[in-house]
Design a protein that fits this description.
Helices cover about 35% and strands about 25% of the residues. It is an alpha/beta fold. The protein starts with 5 loop residues before the first strand and ends with a helix.
Length: about 230
């Protein structure tokens, strides 16, 4: 046990076609309610301090977390020059699907339902992936996300969806309102007063973690009861 209340923390690799791989960090509290897979935003990675802070808070609520790099090491080097792959929602959603497949195969997580936490463009990827797996994903949370980039997939999402935006992030608020009109699943928009896009203001990220934790805990259900 690496720290009190945790059964296991480990770095993983998820194999892709052609021998490529993506890396992830899995944290397993004792008797987890579910597992939340993080889809990072444009230009970010599994080492994002903001998402790692939220993941730690979710673990305190009894949720396993998997923070993954949606791009391979070679793709990350390309994206640093072009900034193109971070906006390839289809690619990112496919990688999130690969991570979900891994979760459903791994012995310690295969009995758990999956939630998605997406930031920026990762929120669109999370919603596209959720639309493709209506029976597997129990909830989605977006932090400062661009759910509008999920396009037609929004109408096919069945997982309850929480859209969290900063009160001073006016452009992104408008994009979230636009996307919410296309969602048919239960959903809510939460505006964090005074927060900007990165939620760097005192208390803003803590509020995100509280809202996300409440949402995931509320909607988490054992597989036996969900089917």
């Amino acid at each position: 046990m690496t720290r009190e209340g945790f059964a296991r923390e480990m770095e993983i690799e998820i194999g892709l076609d052609g021998g490529a791989y993506i890396k992830g960090d899995l944290a397993l509290p004792q008797d987890p309610l579910g597992v939340v897979v993080f889809a990072h935003g444009s230009g970010s990675s599994r080492l994002s301090p903001r998402n790692r802070s939220v993941a730690a808070a979710l673990a305190e609520r009894g949720l396993a977390t998997l923070l993954i790099d949606l791009l391979t090491p070679e793709e990350e080097r390309i994206d640093e020059r072009t900034h193109e792959l971070r906006f390839d929602i289809e690619l990112l959603a496919g990688r999130l699907g690969a991570a979900t497949d891994w979760v459903q195969r791994y012995s310690a997580t295969r009995a758990l339902r999956v939630g998605y936490f997406g930031a920026s463009t990762g929120a669109a990827a999370a919603l596209v992936a959720a639309a493709r797996r209506p029976d597997d994903v129990f909830a989605v949370v977006s932090r400062g996300g661009r759910p509008d980039l999920a396009g037609d997939a929004l109408a096919h999402v069945r997982a309850p969806t929480l859209l969290i935006v900063g009160g001073r992030d006016t452009v992104v608020i408008d994009r979230n309102v636009e996307a919410s009109r296309r969602l048919r699943a239960p959903h809510r928009i939460e505006v964090v007063p005074g927060a900007t896009h990165l939620f760097e203001e005192p208390g803003a990220l803590e509020r995100v973690a509280q809202l996300a934790g409440d949402w995931f805990v509320e909607h988490a259900r054992p597989v036996a009861l969900a089917r």
